[in-house]
Amino acid sequence: MAVTSDTIAVPVSSKAARFRVCATTGLRIDLSAQTLIKWNAVAGIVFLAIGGLLGLSVALTRWPAVHLLPAEWFYLALTAHGLDVLLLWIIFFEIAVLYFAGAVLLSSRLAAPRVAWAAFALMLIGGLTTNVAVLQGGSSVMFTSYVPMPAAPHFYLGLVLFAVGALVAVGVFFGTLVIAREERTYQGSIPLVTFGALTAGIIAVFTLASGAIILIPTFLWSVGIVNAIDPLMYKLIWWGMGHSSQQINVSAHVAIWYAIAAIVLGAKPLSEKVSRMAFLLYILFLQLASAHHLLVEPALSSEWKIFNTSYAMYLAVLGSMIHGMTVPGSIEAAQRAKGLNRGLFEWLRKAPWGNPAFAGMFLSLVMFGFLGGISGVVMGTEQINLIMHNTLYVPGHFHGTVVAGTTLAFMAITYLLIPLIFQREVRFPRMARWQPYVFAIGVSGISLFMMGAGTLGVPRRHWDITFADAAFKFDFPDTAYLMLGLNGLAALCAALGGLMYVIIAVASVFFGKRIEEAPVRAGIKPKIAPPGAAVGTYGSAGTLHVPGTIVLVGIFFIAFVLYYFVNWKYLAEVWPLR
Amino acid sequence: MAISPPAEHIWWHQPIHREELIWIIVAFLWGLVMFFMMIYWHAFGQQNLSNETYRITPEAFAAKTQAMIDTYQVRDDNGIPVVKPPAGGDVYLMGRVWMWYPHLEFEKGQSYRLHLSSLDYQHGFSLQPVNINLQVQPGYEMVLTLTPGEAGEYGVVCNEYCGLGHHLMVGKIYVVER
């Protein structure tokens, strides 16, 4: 398929791929990319449905008045919950996003579709293998599978296969970028959303390689070939996968925020330079986050902990804080350009709140910042971690990032992918209007109430904080029980929102009304390619004011600073340690 | 738009808007404040980890713990020895499935060098309701100096998952007036 220099003007090879032209956006879509996006997204949604249900059973067990599952099932369900939603749902959907941002947004053919199918098969086989291992009962080791607690060999083997498959899929995405450039399917630089997806892809290489590097020896250990795995080394490298994979999510969902703002509102980044540099900060510094899990560990020095946990002086946090301003800023600028200029917030009040793609995206943005972002930085402070490590505060934090942030953003973009990629109308539009709100209310409850219980010392991954069967007991305060009850209610609400999403997605994909398309053709330029002069002026200093956004980030900043120092005060009240 | 190539080929030449620039500077400075706050706390705060750690085998740690129990045991809690070591001395606490061993008695306001290790899997030392949480690793002996603040009975909950009996693992630390 190589393109020689004399044929470069005429992209011969792209004629081999079959394209259609999207009637809504004018994008040229490679049919094999379209099918792969579909199947990766569908696989992700299936694992979301399974993992979400398991999550509900975990929350209902933690609710002392309900205490749904027996202990063995609780630990099994918790292991499978982490695996299915944190790894399988998110990575499958991310692969779909990468193919979308690579092939579709660049109007290019997908590199090596057969290899992409092989990657899909590897990921699916790997994911199913590990699920089987967990369901067989001998591998309730939690998603993190800390050594020396052993799991069945196929538990690790499945994870390795999945990681390798995902790595290959990321390679297909990189190949697609190379092809698009060589065949000149776009002019100039890649779009910001593709740039964000590329960031996610680069971080994914580091992440998945870390996973393979630690899980292959652990697999060998489980079958008796390797003698021992050092538990600290395991943790350090495993979190190179475990935490960095969350940074893939951040890059991917920030790219989705920009994409939804662009597609729904025609928003353009305030400044390409600023937004792209913020993504670059992710690539350079996010990988240090393994340290977040090692702050109260023996054997590591405080110098190491401080440098790494702060992403080298909070430079990756800086990236997120920049996106947290430029995304709403670009929306405000687009809305003001349409004449919604009254007061500070007319642009926000009159935003399309009834459009689930926009509503989900904006809720994801706000909750990621306020719930997941602030709590993550506070918990990741070396000394403050002493009063939070391994309490329910930890899952409270990451349900604010991964569920309220990433999952909600992925749900939001689904409402755009259904017409664009699946070529179907969204079924149950009235239910779809409500879905992001129901899910967001539930998830914010889960996040807040778990953090609340965590500050009272309630441990994570714990079946029974009443210690009914234990030889010795500790009485947690009544407030802790109240928090766990409220967490159960919030989980019911989130599960309802998740169920609505799955119903809408499945019904639309399989039974939605078909959207008629222009006939399949090759070599057509996308409609939306060259931005007009009006939007081209966003970035020019002096022409743009986003006072509403300034107020929003001001509120965020004050909340951040106050919460940060309140936690130092809590720490100062703890018994002296040195 | 963010889904199409930037208007200017070399996007680096695009100007940065003043409102964006101010936010970047504020966020960057805030990052520095948070970074130096951790260093400041090492110099002036009371809650820091010593970073003192030794490699040790489970057998050796169990032997040290047993030697302490043999010397300083004062009573027992349903078969688990309660140890009252001298103030300022070395105290050993080991985690194993699914108990903390032994139980400890401290005097309020005195300092103790607490040694933590695990005999099997990873465990989580979670002192409640004080809410001090430390990771306990097999093969590593972590040492820190602890100064109990108030008299009372405290629970040591395990907060690292350590198998199907994880929720049964609760130890005790008693703090008495001098």
Layout of helices and strands, plus pairs?
The complex is a heterodimer of chains A (578) and B (178).
Chain A (H helix, E strand, L loop, with lengths): L11 H5 L2 E3 L6 E3 H32 L8 H34 L8 H23 L17 H30 L9 H31 L8 H12 L1 H22 L6 H14 L16 H8 L1 H27 L8 H4 L6 H24 L13 H28 L8 H27 L22 H34 L21 H4 L10 H26 L6
Antiparallel strand pairs in A: 1-2
Helix pairs in contact in A: 2-3, 2-4, 2-16, 3-4, 3-5, 3-6, 3-8, 4-5, 5-6, 6-7, 6-8, 6-9, 8-11, 8-13, 8-14, 9-11, 10-11, 11-13, 11-18, 13-14, 13-15, 13-18, 14-15, 14-16, 15-16
Chain B lengths: L17 H27 L7 E4 L2 H15 E5 L2 E4 L6 E7 L2 E3 L1 E5 L4 E7 L4 E6 L3 E5 L3 E7 L5 E7 L11 E7 L2
Parallel strand pairs in B: 3-6, 4-7, 6-12
Antiparallel strand pairs in B: 1-10, 2-3, 4-5, 7-10, 8-9, 8-11, 11-12
Residue-averaged pLDDT of chain B, rounded? Answer: 95
Strand arrangement, largest sheet of chain A? 1-2
- Straight-line distance between termini of chain B: 71 Å
Q: Helices and strands of chain B: which structural class?
A: alpha+beta
Distance between the termini of chain A: 64 Å
Describe the strand arrangement of the main beta sheet of chain B, using strand numbers. Answer: 2-3-6-12-11-8-9
Strand content of chain B: 35-45%
What this model shows, in words?
The complex is a heterodimer of chains A (578) and B (178). Chain A has 578 residues and is mostly helical. Chain A is 67% helix and 1% strand. Chain A is built from 18 helices and two strands. Chain A has helices at 12-16, 31-62, 71-104, 113-135, 153-182, 192-222, 231-242, 244-265, 272-285, 302-309, 311-337, 346-349, 356-379, 393-420, 429-455, 478-511, 533-536, 547-572, and strands at 19-21, 28-30. Chain A has a two-stranded antiparallel ribbon. In chain A, helix 6 (192-222) runs antiparallel to helix 7 (231-242). The N and C termini of chain A lie far apart (64 Å). With 178 residues, chain B is of the alpha+beta class. Chain B is built from two helices and twelve strands; from the N terminus they run αβαβββββββββββ. Chain B has helices at residues 18-44, 58-72; strands spanning 52-55, 73-77, 80-83, 90-96, 99-101, 103-107, 112-118, 123-128, 132-136, 140-146, 152-158, 170-176. In chain B, the strands form two sheets. Chain B has a seven-stranded mixed sheet. In chain B, strands 1-10-7-4-5 form a five-stranded mixed sheet, covered by helices on one side. In chain B, a hairpin with a 2-residue loop joins strand 4 (90-96) and strand 5 (99-101). The longest helix of chain B is centred in the first third of the chain and has 27 residues, at 18-44. Classes of the chains: A mainly alpha (578), B alpha+beta (178).
